[in-house]
Amino acid sequence: MPVGDWFKEFCNKLKVQNKESISARYKAITRRLNTDFWDTSSDTSRSLYVGSYGRNTAIQGFSDLDMIFQLPYEVYERYNKYTGNGQSALLQEVKRSIEKTYSTTSMRGDGQVIQIPFTDGLTFEVVPGFINKDKSYTYPDANSGGRWRVTNPRPEIEAIRSRNNECNKNLLWLCRMMRMWKRKWNVPIGGLLIDTLAYQFIATWAYRDKSFVYYDWMCRDFFEFMANQDKEKSFWRAPGSGQLVYGKGLFQWKSRRCANLAIEACNHESAEPKRKWTAKQKWREIFGTEFPS
Q1: What are phi and psi of 70, to 5 degrees?
Q2: pTM
Q3: Where are the alpha helices (DSSP H) in 205-237?
Q4: Which of 101, 193, 208, 239 is the most buried (most CB within 10 A)?
C-alpha cells in the first residue's frame, strides 16, 4: 500500500461519526431557545456552530461542542441595567429555558457558557449572544463580578473554509491530524491555535495543492514549522477575525521530537529497499494506533 493510502485511511478514521445525534441535540436546543425568547419554533435560525466543529476541524471523539445562540437585544438591555452581575443572571435564565428540554441533564450555567453534558461524553457549550452590526457577538462573562465580551467566529470559519478550498482540502486534514497528535502526546495547545498555525503554514507550503501522497512531507514540515515558533510568544492572531489566540504552554519541544520522528519515517519510506513497516511504526508513534499498522 502506497504512503498516500496510509494517510487517506488514517484521515478517514478521524471523521466525526455522530453528526446525526449532534444535529438532533443542536436543533432541540435551538427550538427551545427560539420558543422562549423569539416566540417561534424554528430549530435552525439564530444558532451557529462555532469552535472546532464550526470550523470543521473537529475529530471523532472530541468532547466539547460550542454553539452561539442569538438573543433579542432587549434582553441585553434588561440585564445590562443590573447593578450586580447581570451576566450571571442572564446565563441562569438561558439555563432554565434549556432545562425545559433536557430536564434530567445535570447542566451548569456559569462563567461564559451553559454546559450540557450528555451520557456519550459530549458536552454542548451554549453561549448566549447579541449580534452586533459587524456580525460579531457580544456575550456574557459572569466571572469577576460580570462583564460583556465580544467574539467574532464567522470570519474565522470563512477564512478556514476559503483557504481549505485553495489548497485542495488539505488544510482541514492537517488540522484534524494535529488534533490526534495533540491527543496522543498530550500537547498543551488549544484547537484554535492548531488551526491558526496550520492556516499560516499551508499558505506558503510548496505542495499545498497536492494529494495524500504528500501528507508525510506535510506533517514533517508542519512539525518543523511549529517547533520553530518563538517560545517567548504568548499569542497569535486568529484567521479572519484577527482575535488574539493565547498559548496554553510550550508545544515546541514535542513538535521538535515529532519532527525528528517524521524525518525518520520519511527516510524509511525512501530507502532502497523501502522499509514500510518501520516507517508506519514511526507514524504510529506520532499519531497513535489509528494510523495503519
Answers
A1: -80, 125
A2: 0.94
A3: 215-227
A4: 239
